[in-house]
Amino acid sequence: MKKICIYLVTTLLLTGLNACLDNDFLDRYPIDKETEVTVFTSYENFKMYAWGFYNKILPGYSTDPTLTGDVSDLFIDTSTSVGISWANDRISPSLISASAWKDPYENIRRINVMLDNLDASQSQLTEDEQAHWRGVGYFFRAYVYFGLLRVFGDLQWVEHVVSTTDRDLLYGKRDSREVVADNVLNNLLYAEQNIKPEGDGVNTINPNVVRALISRFGLFEGTWRKYHGSVDGVDGTKYLEASVAASQKLIDQNLGLIPDYDDVFNSLSLSGQSSILLYREYEYESGKGHDLSNRSTWTDYEATKKLLEMYLCKDGKPVSTSSFYDGDATMYDEFRNRDHRLYYTICPPYRVETNGDYSEWRYTSNPAEREYIDLMNELTGGDSKRKMLPLYTGTYGVEVPNFTEVAQNGFSTNCGYHMYKYYNSYDGSLNLSDRGATDCPTFRMGEVLVNHAEAMWELGRFNQAVADVTINPLRVRANVDAMVVSQIGADFDLYRDSDVDPVLWEIRRERTVELMGSGFRFSDIKRWKKGDYLTQQPVGAKVTNIDDYNNDSLKGRLYNGEQKSRWKNCLSYIVKPNPGWLEKCYLYPIPLTQTILNPNLGQNPGWSNE
User: Fold this and answer.
1) Distance (Å, rounded) from C-alpha 466 to C-alpha 259?
2) Predicted pLDDT of residue 152
3) Per-residue pLDDT at 23 exceeds 90
4) Count of alpha carbons within 13 Å of 521, Cβ hemisphere only?
5) DSSP 580-596
6) Three-state DSSP state, 163
7) Which residues contact 468 (CB under 8 A, 6 or more apart)?
């Protein structure tokens, strides 16, 4: 049974549990309706209720192939020519959806309904069973609060179901970030100790899943406090230590990695993979497919030159200093001898010939144009359902890059770099919506390893031994030489942000490429306090033969910004750099509708409700 996809088709979640607002208003229980007293009795009752948390709270595959939207310095949003909203003051409280605040609190209420019934007189649970379900509830509540904390900062911490008569809480002020973060950490530590080792079966919350969330949360909160300043006099050390401890427990179990990076994101089943700690299963035959594979063939988001430069060459050195880098006069040169994760994330260049309806293809007479077709055939073991080239969704794409102004047969991009991390054709119907059947990793060891490396550096304990159990296993899989910490100096990468330590820069690079397109980048930029990254004018591929295209529109998009020497002849879609990053944008504004309902919520620094 695909447990993480089960929908709780019952009245338990909403209608039958509305009574939770005031448990004393009933003198006796209605015999024709589910109530808390009749629902929360046995272990199986709690288990059924908790299934609803998986689908409602944990993320799955969406329709956005970057899983990050436009809030990243590594993607170009071609739906707009004015750049990222967060970097040019086009955000206001009235533009933030009320659901960004309301929906998480509705989930917190659902969780608290279960928690408040654990000790009820009708419960038939043993003490250990109560502790287990309390741990499960704490995990999900911590997960929701962590999401809110990343976005809004100070929050109202709600420990129990709120009665409609409890106006002090309903219309109260927000608690401090320290109160919320401390409660999140304590809830997770309790969950780690009390959830059953096996959880409630395969692919359910167990202590290892909790450790993965502690690893993620502790790194975020610890580095936020380091780069933004302590909160209520508490620095980030205890959170970083919690992250390190949780990650180390996972690393010590030797859970390994899936040998092929692409299989992490494009497998029909992640079952039995020890390095995948939790995942969401999909089956399009039963109506539980996703649309991400389809969306990966066309999207408003394209990779930037900056992202391409983040991927190392096979000798473990960056493009600015590696002798294996063949330059970027053509995309064929640029992709050669690189980290294999690049080939699985951004479509490599190729060109083929096709028949009139694009239903068949053949190699051109130029051997150079099949270089990456052959490479992807080798990397995928000849599996035509995965990352084989040419691109296919019922018809074949003629070439990459395939610029919009002169495009042939779809698969076009404005700036050359096609983001296709989630592209596959397992179901044979990529051009149809909601047919995706590949599983979505929710927590995995690849993330835990980069979390651990970064947290150890922030605590001053990163060394070669740490690199060998975190960074270097990822590099083995990517066909990149190992990190040698002693060789990383100020001149290791000429494109490094000079404000970032050289070793930390390489750790952040590894995190970036390992997690690219998985929804982490904007949060990382905010916790590092590097919002200025979002103000840089994004550029795409270099086109040295632009006259051959004989297209004035294409010529008009050549980059003309400050870094002409580095990005000369590169294409750009954004008209100009964003005007600047405002300090207030590190936190979202509280939605206007919520501050109207409860003026005591106040507003985050720098934002106005006017």
Assistant:
1) 21
2) 97
3) no
4) 22
5) ---GGGGSPPPPHHHHH
6) coil
7) 482
pLDDT of residue 8: 33
Tokens matching residue 100: 């960004």
Give backbone dihedrals phi and psi of 466, rounded to 5 degrees, phi first. -70, -45
DSSP for 130-157 reads HHHHHHHHHHHHHHHHHHHHHHHSSB--
Half-sphere exposure of 567 (CA within 13 A, CB side): 23
Whether the predicted pLDDT of 123 surpasses 90: no
φ, ψ of residue 223 in degrees (nearest 5) = -75, -30
C-alpha 50/C-alpha 143 separation (Å) is 14
pLDDT of residue 12: 33
What are the distances in angstroms from CA 610 to CA 151, 562, 582, 594, 603?
21, 36, 18, 14, 11
* DSSP secondary structure code for residue 337 in this structure: T
8 Å CB contact between 282 and 439: yes
Nearest to 526 by CA among 534, 515, 537: 534
Q: Are strands 75-77 and 361-363 parallel, antiparallel or unpaired?
A: unpaired
> Is pLDDT at 14 greater than 50 in this prediction?
no
- C-alpha span between 237 and 218 (Å, rounded): 9
Instruction: Put residue 337 in one of left, alpha, beta given phi > 0 → left and psi -120 to 50 → alpha.
Output: left
Nearest Cα residue to 463 out of 453, 473, 476: 453
Above pLDDT 90, what percent of the chain? 71
Q: Check whether the bond before 401 is cis (ω within 30° of 0).
A: yes
Q: How far is CA 166 from the centre of its chain?
A: 37
pLDDT at residue 9, as a whole number: 31
- CA R_g for the chain: 25
According to DSSP, residue 297 is labeled T
Which 3 state secondary structure label does DSSP give 501? coil
> How sure is the predictor about 1, in pLDDT bands with cuts at 50, 70 and 90?
very low
Q: d(Cα 289, Cα 261) in Å, to the nearest integer?
A: 22
Q: Is the pTM of this model over 0.90?
A: yes
**What is the rounded CA–CA span in Å between residue 321 and residue 568?**
19
| Token pair 């020890």 in the structure block, residue | 274
Which is higher by pLDDT, 75 or 243?
Answer: 243
**Token pair for 163:** 């009665």
What is the predicted pLDDT for the residue at 7? 32
Residues in the chain: 610
Residues 6+ away with beta carbon under 8 Å from 230: 236
Is residue 242 within 8 Å of 186, Cβ to Cβ?
Answer: no
Instruction: Give the pLDDT confidence of 404-448 residue by residue, as tens digits.
Output: 999 988 789 999 999 999 998 886 555 567 778 899 999 999 999
Give strand pairing partners of 290: 436
Instruction: Write out the two tokens for 270.
Output: 């992640």
Q: Give the pLDDT score at 36.
A: 72
Contact 267, 419 (CB under 8 A): no
Six-digit token string for 543: 């086109």
Crossing angle of helices 207-228 and 445-458, rounded to 10°: 40
Cβ neighbours of 332 (radius 10 Å)? 17
